[in-house]
Amino acid sequence: MRYTAQRHGFTIVELLIVIVVIAVLASISIVAFNGVQQRSRDARRAQDMTLIKKALLLYQADNGGVQRTTTYAGNDGGGWDSSATAPWMSFLTAQYGGPAPVDPINAPNTEGTGDPTLGGQSYYYYCYNAGSGPNPATANVRMGYWSEQTKTRVNVYIPVDACL
């Protein structure tokens, strides 16, 4: 009668195959997950722009216009306001849905110009008087953000009664 030992455990080759399969699956899921994060942050940014627009229109209804900012020196006594700098839309009190939301990354412009439309990862806001800016026939607000997914600036323009 022959005695045969029962084999317990796995061989080195079997273990290596399992490790390689797990590594491949992990790398595929990490690549897919990175795109989801960017899309979700961009979706939040678009939603935040909608909320800020509604707050500005409520503010305008009560005050006859929206606030001009002077954070970054601009034309006509106005300036750019950035969510990466204080005071970010401080005029939007709780009465108007404030404080205003900030970008999920909220990194300032590091190019040295201070103009939030030229760099950084933050929301920006500017109120143009009638006769200036991209819509010269009326006063208007320009606000926007940097889209991670499309790698471009997304601008939102809102006609307003006046820049206060």
Write a structural description:
- The protein has 164 residues and is an alpha+beta fold.
- The protein has one helix spanning 12-63, and strands spanning 72-73, 79-82, 124-128, 140-147, 152-159.
- Strands 1-2-3-4-5 form a five-stranded antiparallel sheet, covered by helices on one side.
- The radius of gyration is 26 Å and the shape is rod-shaped.
- The mean pLDDT is 83.
Key phrases:
5 strands, 164 residues, alpha+beta, 32% helix, 5-stranded antiparallel β-sheet, 1 helix
Question: Outline of this structure?
Answer:
With 164 residues, the protein is α+β, with helices and mostly antiparallel strands. It contains one helix and five strands; from the N terminus they run αβββββ. The chain has one helix spanning 12-63, and strands at 72-73, 79-82, 124-128, 140-147, 152-159.
For the largest beta-sheet, the strand count, sense and barrel status come to: 5 strands, antiparallel
Helix content: 25-40%
Q: Using the alpha-carbon principal axes, give the shape.
A: rod-shaped
Uncertain ranges: none
Query: Could you give the order of the helices and strands?
Result: HEEEEE
Q: If strands are numbered along the chain, what order do they take across the biggest sheet?
A: 1-2-3-4-5
Radius of gyration: 26 Å
Beta content: 15-25%
How far apart are the termini?
102 Å
In round numbers, the mean pLDDT is: 83
User: How many domains comprise the coordinates?
Assistant: 1
The helix tally amounts to 1
Based on DSSP secondary structure assignment, what is the total number of beta strands? 5
Structural class: alpha+beta
